[in-house]
Design a protein that fits this description.
heterodimer; A: alpha+beta; five-stranded antiparallel β-sheet; 3 helices; 13 strands; B: mainly alpha; 18 helices; 77% helix; flat
Chain lengths: 187, 426
């Protein structure tokens, strides 16, 4: 086999790898969106500008901490398996935290420890893997205003709809009083 | 430059200073040089064009088109990457020896891959972990360095992994595992080949700057909680840079094309000045508590590297005059261990070391008749004096005398050199 052939084969393999990586990302997310379980995460209030990925709104969540019942040591940045349950209003909350995969049939999200609180047996603050909602450049600014106004008005309920499957989570949409945030921008 | 020389040729021949034969040879030399120039300009424009188009695509993608459906957006996210791949295949098949094609198509594909991953992340609201995004992007593009082969891809890769290390390796949530180091090793064969095969190419010179810069930026990611210990690793790293240059590894004498020499020398002086402050030494009250395994490894490996290069330097220059500046890292390391136990003594010894280095550099400037080196030495002493100006425990009279002394030194040393030059000219 001559040199040129080897180079072309190597380049062919690289092409496959380059195509496969985004394809696998897409496949995985589509699968979660198709067959994952929906959870509503209530939002708390903020628009930076990411030069690579355009305009988005940053979401903060109310249920992002877990008061431990027994003292377990965590480090900021450590991976955590957060088991989910729903409260009486149907919104997601953290049921418990695990260091290892909690097993099949349990709804959980692979997340990271953000920081730690010292009250009680220690509070663990979680960084959810869905804190950005991307919008079209022209709309992100006004969407942020609508989002912040809605949070300031305590009668409004703002939440993010998240699909969860085997630890992966995909943020599907942001709702204000059961209507997608985009519908407020068209008015 | 060539124009001036060619214009002067008839005059030189007329004056009998140059033969017809020699002037023809000079003309031939410049003709050949000019012939190579268009290729270089094309290369520069090709790469700049590819970078601009690549960045433009990233910006267009960042608009996040709402009118498009999800499947359409997902489909389009592959478009720039596929165009880049087609261009590269065309280059490999039809233009294998064409450097302009090679570098431009690889540069374009490099950015297109980044755009594709970014668009997918945007469609599925994947959160903004810049570190993991850069990591995936760089891994998918590193083979271009070897397959095409492309030096521009290599420079972009270096910039990318450096950004990645800064994102992931600094801050309170810094990752424990340092991927940067093996990512850098992947580049090494290309860098070595480039330095051996094309020692005078512009790409090689750029690498001689970007590699030491990247190392300087990223070595700190290995730091443990007590960062001051990292000065030991840094002083050895800078010594290694300086020694590599003194060993004659790099063919050019020009400072501007050799990052190792400049970064090594200036970095060493900055560390010395920083360690001349008393406060620097009082931070070690915690003893060895702030040590981490990564930091220990960094300190030992950089020290061994510098010591190895020093050994080679001494062997190579056996029997000749040795440049005493090559020993600074050993003296610094010695003073460091004294200073941990006795901070005041550490600070005094460090001040003496900076003073000695400054005086030596001034002397060397005078010896080799070089105003730049002379004033570099004076600058070091000036900075040292300025720093001591802020140390309040010295009396005003003493500080005043130091300033007068250094100011007089500037006049004296410069006028001495000027006088020497005049004598030489006469």
């Amino acid at each position: 086999m001559n040199n040129k052939k080897i180079i072309l084969i190597a380049f062919g393999l690289l092409v496959l790898l380059q195509l496969w990586t985004p394809a696998a990302m897409i496949w995985n997310r589509e699968d979660v969106m198709r067959s994952g379980k929906s959870f509503k995460f209530r939002a708390a209030p903020v628009d930076p500008n990411d030069p690579f990925r355009g305009k988005y709104i940053i979401l903060n969540f109310r249920d992002n901490s877990y008061a431990q019942k027994e003292r377990i040591k965590w480090l900021p940045g450590e991976q955590v398996f957060a088991q989910l349950s729903e409260d009486s209003g149907g919104y997601a909350r953290i049921h418990s935290l695990h260091k290892k995969h909690p097993g099949k049939g349990i709804d959980f999200i692979k997340a990271k420890v953000n920081y730690l609180g010292t009250e009680g047996m220690g509070t663990v603050y979680i960084e959810w893997p869905f804190d950005r909602f991307y919008m079209e450049e022209s709309k992100a600014g006004s969407a942020e205003k609508v989002y912040n106004r809605s949070l300031a008005d305590t009668n409004n309920i703002t939440y993010a709809l998240v699909k969860v499957k085997s630890g992966d989570a995909v943020l599907e949409n942001v709702f204000i009083n059961e209507k997608p945030i985009v519908s407020y921008l068209k008015k | 430059m060539s124009r001036h020389v060619l214009d002067a040729l008839p005059e030189l021949i007329k004056a009998g200073l140059l033969s017809e034969d020699a002037s023809e040879k000079i003309r031939g030399y410049y003709r050949e040089k000019d012939r190579n120039r268009p290729q270089r300009m094309n290369l520069v424009f090709g790469i700049i064009g590819a970078i601009l188009v690549g960045l433009g695509i990233i910006l267009i993608v960042a608009h996040n088109w709402d009118e498009m459906s999800r499947p359409l957006k997902v489909g389009l996210s592959f478009a720039p990457m596929i165009i880049g791949q087609i261009l590269c295949v065309y280059c490999l098949l039809k233009k294998p020896g064409n450097q302009v094609w090679k570098e431009s198509s690889a540069t374009f594909l490099f950015f297109a891959v980044g755009a594709s991953i970014a668009l997918v992340a945007q469609v599925y609201n994947i959160p903004g972990n810049m570190g993991s995004f850069l990591f995936t992007w760089m891994l998918l593009c590193f083979p271009l360095i070897y397959i095409m082969p492309s030096s521009m891809a290599s420079l972009l890769y270096l910039a990318g992994i450096t950004m990645y290390a800064v994102q992931d390796g600094y801050g309170y949530k810094a990752a424990d595992l340092q991927h940067y180091w093996w990512l850098l090793l992947l580049l090494l064969p290309h860098y070595l080949l480039l330095a051996i095969k094309k020692p005078l190419s512009n790409f090689t010179f750029f690498h001689h700057w970007v590699v030491p810069l990247s190392l300087t930026i990223c070595l700190g990611t290995l730091s443990g909680p007590q960062e001051e210990y990292m000065t030991l690793a840094y002083i050895s790293l800078f010594a290694a840079f300086y020694l590599a240059d003194n060993l004659g590894v790099f063919p050019s004498e020009r400072m501007a094309v050799n990052g190792y020499s400049l970064i090594g020398s200036v970095g060493t002086i900055i560390l010395l000045i920083a360690a001349s402050f008393r406060d620097f030494w009082t931070t070690f009250s915690d003893g060895l508590k702030g040590f981490s395994p990564g930091m220990l490894l960094a300190i030992i490996l950089t020290f061994l590297m510098a010591a190895g290069l020093l050994f080679l330097y001494l062997v190579k220059n056996a029997g000749q005059k040795i440049n005493p500046l090559v020993f600074i890292f050993l003296v610094f390391t010695g003073i460091f261990f004294i200073g941990i136990g006795a901070p005041a003594l550490g600070a005094i010894l460090m001040n003496l070391l900076v003073l000695a280095v400054g005086i030596f550099i001034i002397r060397r400037g005078l010896e080799i008749n070089h105003l730049g080196i002379l004033n570099y030495g004076l600058l070091i002493i000036t900075v040292l004096v300025l720093c001591r100006f802020f140390d309040t425990d010295l009396s005003f009279v003493l500080r005043g005398l130091m300033f007068v002394g250094v100011g007089a030194g500037f006049f004296f040393a410069n006028s001495l050199l000027m006088k020497k030059r005049k004598q030489y000219e006469q």
